[in-house]
Structures are given as C-alpha cells and as structure tokens.
UniProtKB/TrEMBL annotation:
Catalyzes the removal of elemental sulfur atoms from cysteine to produce alanine. Seems to participate in the biosynthesis of the nitrogenase metalloclusters by providing the inorganic sulfur required for the Fe-S core formation. GO terms for molecular function: cysteine desulfurase activity; iron-sulfur cluster binding; metal ion binding; transaminase activity. Coiled coil: none annotated. Residues 5-362 form the Aminotransferase class V domain. PANTHER family: CYSTEINE DESULFURASE, CYSTEINE DESULFURYLASE FAMILY MEMBER. Belongs to the class-V pyridoxal-phosphate-dependent aminotransferase family. NifS/IscS subfamily. This is Cysteine desulfurase. Gene3D superfamilies: Aspartate Aminotransferase, domain 1, Type I PLP-dependent aspartate aminotransferase-like (Major domain). SUPFAM superfamilies: PLP-dependent transferases (SSF53383). Pfam families: Aminotran_5. InterPro entries: Aminotrans_V_dom (IPR000192), Cysteine_dSase (IPR016454), PyrdxlP-dep_Trfase (IPR015424), PyrdxlP-dep_Trfase_major (IPR015421), PyrdxlP-dep_Trfase_small (IPR015422). Its cofactor is pyridoxal 5'-phosphate. It comes from Caulobacter endophyticus. Keywords: Aminotransferase, Iron, Iron-sulfur, Metal-binding, Pyridoxal phosphate, Transferase.
C-alpha cells in the first residue's frame, strides 16, 4: 500500500535521517547541560551548540557569534523587532514591511501599532507577489528604522530581490530584517555581505526538527537583551540545536544539487497538471520562485473540495500552514490582487529532497481524478 505523496514541504519537511542520527547522539551521548561547564558532559554540550552555530552561520554567510537559537522562526522575528525597538528608545519604531510577510510578523507588527510602540507602512506587491524596488526606495526616503522583507514567499514561492533591497536600505541608513525561513538552504544567502541586520531561520523547513530556529544578527553579540527578553534564560534545547546545525551543514553542501533535481520534479508536475486540467494557471513569479514551489489555481473548483478528495493520496494545502483550514483566501493572494476565482481555486504544492518521479506522477494523476470528481459533483447537485 502506497503512503500519500507528501507535497507540503513549505509547511514542514521530513527530518533527514542524518539529522536524526545527530539528534539521537546529543540525547544519548552528548546529553550534558551546556550551562554545567564544570565537567566534560556540560563542556561537550556547550561545544555542540558552538559547532551548530558555525554551521548555521555558514549557511547564510554570517558569523557564528551572531547566531541566537530560539524556539522557532516566530520567536526569532519577535527578538528582531525587540532589538530594533530598543535601538530607538523614547519613540515608536518606524517600520516598513511588505504586505505578503508571514502572519507571525504581521501580527507582531499590528500588535506593536496598537500598543503605540510602532508605526507601520505596508508595501504593496505586484500580481506575482514581488516588491518593486522603486516603491522600496520611495518608502525608505521617508525615514524608516526597520524594513521587513521575506526572502521567499511561503505560499507562491516568489523570491524577492533581497540583495538589491539591502543596498537600498543600507544607503538610507535603515536596518533590514529578512525572514529567510523558506529561502535558507534553497538559495544562496549572504547576511554579512548584503548588510542584513536581522535574518530569521527555522530548522524544520530545512529537514531539521521542529521547535528550534535562529536569529542571525550583529545585535546578538553587541546589544543587551531587549526588554521582555532580559530574564533568566532556560536551558538550551541541545538536541534541537544540534539538529539544526546538522541540517544547515547538509543544506550548505547539497543546496545546488538538490535545487536542480527538485526544480526538475516541480516542472514535471507542473507540465502534467497543465496538460490534464483545463484552465489551470500557475501563480507567483515563474522566473523567480523557489525550486520546489508550485502554486496553481483551477477555475470553477473550490480548493477545499479538491484537498478533501485527495487527502488520502496527496498531502497539499490551500495556503500557509498557519492558516490551514481557513475559509477566506490568504492575505498573500489578496495582496497580489488576482482574480477571485484564482483565490478560491488556489492550491499550494511543494516538492522536496526525498520526492521521487513516481510520487510526482501519482500526485498528478490523483489531482486530475479529484478535479474531475469535484466538477461532476458540482454539476450533479448544481
């Protein structure tokens, strides 16, 4: 019996067996408390964290002493905002952010606005979810403390021109926060060379464990802990951190080859769906997207009905995992201002490291059948 084909790698990735081995070793052999450095067990655990920080920093072109491990990307985003706010005491933090950021950031910014701690300017995107450099430049001319940009969108996979945006931010004297949760391990990143002040990462998007992420920023080594975070810290999650380090090391080594193979599988899936499902369109920026991303819309077919019909054959989604099951179209698709039918018929698929050609073909066949069944049912009861 075949297991369902997993095409939801933007939501989470399966943990690489090599990462599992590293985690198990940290739990069975390197189990010491890294805060107990009076003996070798604690020293070895602390050293394991240092090594993990080196792997994470190398993945994004940063410094290991700029890495702060967190419970995930959401906490890392909050850390970055807190550091930025602490640098402008006595007044609200002036923020500019793209309209297609992750809800974790959008909610934090909206909360800051309600509390009077921030003012936020929302930057529009085009129909491909891409930010205009001209709009960025005009916005930065209005005196902005912090610019927030997602390197790769978690729904339609669009890649933003981060290096060019970083140049504009640096010229305006604006700090840049880059959410690289989806981009890390898939495209080259250069946090130091680009002058990115804050970069956010997540382990479970790069075939590592859940519950661990990282903020990469000079503020980690130069600034005091910001208000709200300046309390006694808990014991580090050594197995999770070790797992993130190992996942980062593998991603750095295999990024290029993975990208080629994954893009070929994505294209194979795309070609089959375009050939067998009438009217299907591909969303996002076709020329600038993540290798594994395939975001499509099917006319006249509710996306939730398709997902329900394939749930035992293919794992895919109607949008971001944080909004999975929501009835309304995502904020990303609304910001793109695409036609209503494309929003209502949107499906997100994402190919990964362990996806096979056979799985892609099975998924395409299952989707073709499901769409046909949904259309037949709608006609019969319509």
């Amino acid at each position: 019996m075949n297991l369902p084909v997993y095409l939801d790698h933007h939501a989470t990735t399966p943990v690489d067996p090599r990462v599992v081995n590293a985690i198990v070793g940290s739990m069975t052999v390197g189990f010491g408390n890294p805060n107990s450095v009076d003996h070798s067990f604690g020293h070895d655990a602390a050293r394991a964290i240092d090594i993990a920080a080196q792997h994470v920093s190398r993945l994004v072109g940063g410094e290991s002493d700029h890495v702060r491990f967190t419970s995930g990307a959401s906490e890392a985003l909050r850390f970055a905002l807190a550091y930025a706010a602490a640098r402008v005491p006595g007044r609200p933090l002036r923020v500019a952010s793209s309209a297609v950021e992750h809800p974790a950031l959008i909610e934090a910014l909206e909360m800051g606005e309600r509390a009077g701690a921030m003012t936020v300017t929302w930057l529009p995107v085009n129909e491909h979810a891409r930010i205009s450099l001209e709009i960025v430049a005009r916005t930065l001319a209005r005196e902005v403390d912090l610019l927030c940009v997602m390197a790769a969108n978690n729904e339609v996979g669009t890649l933003q021109p981060v290096a060019a945006i970083a140049d504009l931010a640096r010229g305006a004297g604006t700090d840049l926060l880059v959410d690289a949760t989806q981009a890390a391990g898939k495209i080259p990143l250069q946090v130091d060379d680009w002058g990115v002040e804050y970069m956010v990462l997540s382990a479970h998007k790069i075939y590592g464990p859940k519950g661990v992420g990282a903020l990469v920023s000079p503020a980690v080594s130069t600034d005091p802990l910001p208000p709200g975070f300046d309390v006694h810290e808990s014991t580090p999650n050594v197995p999770g951190i070790v797992g993130m380090g190992e996942a980062s090391k593998i991603a750095k080594a295999e990024m290029a080859s993975d990208g080629v193979r994954i893009a070929a599988l994505r294209d194979r899936l795309q070609e089959r769906l375009l050939a067998t499902i009438p009217g299907l369109v591909v969303n996002g920026d076709i020329a600038n997207r993540l290798a594994g991303n395939l975001h499509v819309s099917i006319p006249g077919v509710p996306n939730d009905a398709v997902v329900a019909n394939v749930r035992h054959a293919v794992a895919l989604s109607t949008g971001a995992a944080c909004a999975s099951g929501a009835d309304a179209p995502s904020h990303v698709l609304r910001a793109m201002d695409i036609a209503d039918w494309r929003q209502q018929g949107a499906l997100r698929m994402s190919v990964g490291r362990f996806t096979t050609e056979d799985e892609v073909d099975r998924a395409a066949a299952a989707l073709e059948v499901a769409v046909g069944m949904v259309k037949h049912s709608m006609q019969a009861f319509g």
